[in-house]
Design a protein that fits this description.
- This protein folds into two domains: about 90 residues, Orthogonal Bundle (Arc Repressor Mutant, subunit A); about 300 residues, Aldolase class I (TIM Barrel, Alpha-Beta Barrel).
- Strand 18 and strand 19 form a beta hairpin.
- The protein is globular.
- It is about 40% helix and about 20% strand.
- By secondary structure, it is an alpha/beta fold.
- The strands form five sheets. The protein has a nine-stranded mixed sheet with strand order 9-10-8-7-6-5-4-1-13, sandwiched between helices.
Amino acid sequence: MTPTINFTPTQCVFDRELIERLEGSGPRYTSYPTADRFHGGFGVSDYEQWLAHRAIGANHRPISLYVHVPFCNTICYYCGCNKIITKDKTRADAYLDYLEKEIRLVAEKLGNREKVIQLHFGGGTPTFLSDEQLDRVMGIIRQHFELLPEGEFSIEIDPRKVGRDTVLHLARLGFNRMSIGIQDFDPVVQEAVNRIQSEEETRVVMDAAREAGFKSISVDLIYGLPKQTAHSLENTVSRVIAMSPDRIALYNYAHLPTVFMPQRRINEADLPSSATKLDILQNSVQQLAEAGYVFIGMDHFAKPDDELTRALQQGRLQRNFQGYSTHADCDMIGLGVSSIGKVGPCYTQNEKELDAYYAALDAGHLPVLRGMTLNQDDILRRSVIQALMCRFSLSIEAIEQTFAINFADYFAVELPQIRAFQSEGLLTFDGDFLMVAPKGRFLIRNIAMIFDRHLRERETKARYSKTI
């Protein structure tokens, strides 16, 4: 039996040779099964059943709300989000009319005035909404739900369209966390992706957030964009570090022009090579480590005293459709066009097209497009993948006791791949614990994919991003 080796949860090693050899494509595991497994056989009545089950059941944990705002003033060529490009804010008035209908229908099915521990506004560009429109939607939410004083209420910010006064207004509405899109400060790269954003615009928003008492500021960066070089992003990362955000997400650009039409405006010849992308990532990881940021998992970094870091160290980290979270796994209600939610053992996704979303609500029912109800195998594998993604470890005994299985028998098909990764030094496995080694942590998606039965047995039309 291989002796157990203990690793601290924040250790990581960038093993370039291993990454180059094992790099592939795979899910990001904001859920398991992944969203491409949702199907049209799951409909309105199924979702309503699980909402009603929560209302009469014993699950009294607070919930999470996700609100999708699909509008953007301008198009960013790299973007793969569900969005509508317009400068007409009256379109948002009509959208809020329908959002109110959906919120009312959901609240009726839940039956109780649910407590909310997490709220996230995503997009699109949530700050496309005017202050008055933001007042309205928050008023609607508060009418039907109770926002807890200790809750995490976050919003995605585009600094090009937001000034100090709007940030202060967001704080008055109850928002206490924000995510700021930067991507890259290099003007050549910004021109190539049609997102011109100055450092000063960004700093104004961050300074205002601190003035208003926001508890956390996160920034998003992307590597692999057109015209990007190792030097150019090194400069951007240095400037971002100087701004001292609490969290930094460093995403790998997934160029899928057949899936996301705006990406067709990007000249593929301008994209950095795979080797250059690894140079960029390796340099950035080193910069962030030297600046004191802790690797949380996948592409996320946080300050040592951040809630995410503490949750990782304490084994409390969670992962859902909003990314890494500090709260216990809770039901999440998705609101708005294309939004995804989880209630009990089901996932559900709203209509992706605005007309279909409106039509469903005009007909008086929830705008469900597709979803799925998980079986026991799905729930078991979700628990395994969640443990690996969030804690870099798996207690075999805990899984066996919780699900009444023999791990070696149940996962007999997976054991050869576990052993293969063990021989590569990605993990240790002694029959009692599976521990992801420091140099396996940048390849955590590869390790999680071992346990993805749907990926192994069922074809999908989805095109996944690179695992690193």
